[in-house]
Amino acid sequence: MTLEFNDSDGDGRISRTEFAAASERGLQAALTRIAALEAQAKGNTSFLNMTATATLIAAAALLRQESRGAHCRRDFPATDPDQAHRSRLTLHEVMTLRQSLLEPAR
Question: 66 and 78 in contact (C-beta within 8 Å)?
Fold first, then answer.
């Protein structure tokens, strides 16, 4: 991540708040980039399988608002006991989430 990406107030420094907020923005940016790569795939099934997997992983990381095991978020550094359970996502659910990130705010 670049200074420009993380320095949201443009003061040339990255505050703790900016550092933490970059985690969510980074995951959203990853989902947007994966969508752009998919658009260029032109029916390459193997590549589309890889981007589907990448989309599921990035969306799951975005939705989990805690750090647990190898999953570590700067904006949610603590473990949340209320999230100590299995969760499930379908490809349809994450594609809907990704599409909401691609649509301009109304």
Answer: yes
